[in-house]
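Entry for nicotinamide-adenine-dinucleotide complex. Fields follow.
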Amino acid sequence: MTLFDSPAFEGHEGVHAFFDERTGLRSIIAVHSTARGPAAGGCRMWPYATAEEALTDALRLSRAMSYKNAMADLELGGGKAVIIGDSRTQKTPALFEAFGRAVEAVGGRYWTAEDVGVSPEDLTHARKHARYVAGLEGHPAASGDPSPVTAEAVFRGVRLCVRRALNRDLDGVRVAIQGVGHVGGYLAEKLHAAGARLVIADVNQEAVRRIADLTRAEVVAPSAIFDVPADVFAPCALGGAVSLETLARLQVRVIAGAANNQLADAAAGRAVFDRGILYAPDYVINGGGIINVAGEIRALERDEAFDPAWVEAKLERLDQTLAEVLDRAQYERRPTNEVANEIARARISGAAEKKAAA
Ligand code: NAD
């Protein structure tokens, strides 16, 4: 299959491959869309078995960033970078400096940030040679850890879904949280403060114990979280938590959580709808993190300090967008994930038309 025939390539404005002989850098930067603004998305370092695998991942992730950034109503398009390599054994400052030169070569059409396998320290090295790097530390524009902001957006999204599906507030609502790491932990604390009753599971015993102590949550084994009768299931661990198999076990009215790619496949999305479960599309409800990063990009572009008030306004707007998705899905009797994709595509093509006409 050639690049242009790959289903993942669809709609991409550009794909850039970089090789640096001195450091061994092999990196792909995929720019899906700059219609709404420069493409933004993190850099992932992963030991891909083949370059083709790395390319497919970069393309898939960059298109997803276009959709996420559009739903967060950011003046940003979608892009993603991947570095082929093992982040535990193959990282060097020189490798990330070479990556910085690659980002700079894309000429501001792509802003990079952290993703799996890449730390703020790595980005500091990249920043030596590139202006378009967010996720910095010790800088007036720095946005810091995005997890609390992601958790705040997810918390508001859960509250909205509960109001819609159960016509009540969070007080006394039972929420089953899968994964109480960075985002799931903060989410648990917020839900507990709002009076929700929690059931939590995590493969990390220390994390689960700490959050149970803080929130008086009931703890179940990781494999048992799908069998807990609850009002809400909040997936906050890895992708693929909602499949035909787990759906047969879930006894909830709402699925709303932080994890990316919650639906194992399209059939799972359809089945959620057929079961009458209200699903908050993952890339909408978890947009708080990218909003935080966008706050840093905005500050760097303007040479200003990070502005939390701007982030708060965007979080309010995100909640309105989620409400728009839920309203339309209810009115048109369609799955929320399909409606969200449609709104995202319309926002991107609307911006592209405006740009073309200007
Ligand atoms: P994290 O690694 O801090 O937390 C994930 C937790 O899930 C860990 O404690 C881990 O032990 C646990 N876990 C893994 N497998 C599990 C299983 N089978 N059952 C139960 N628990 C399991 O990650 P995070 O930053 O909290 O992110 C959580 C999810 O949200 C990820 O899917 C991430 O991509 C997504 N997300 C995060 C952000 C952010 O700002 N951090 C933003 C958007 C989306």
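NOTE: Residues 308-332 form the longest helix (25 residues).
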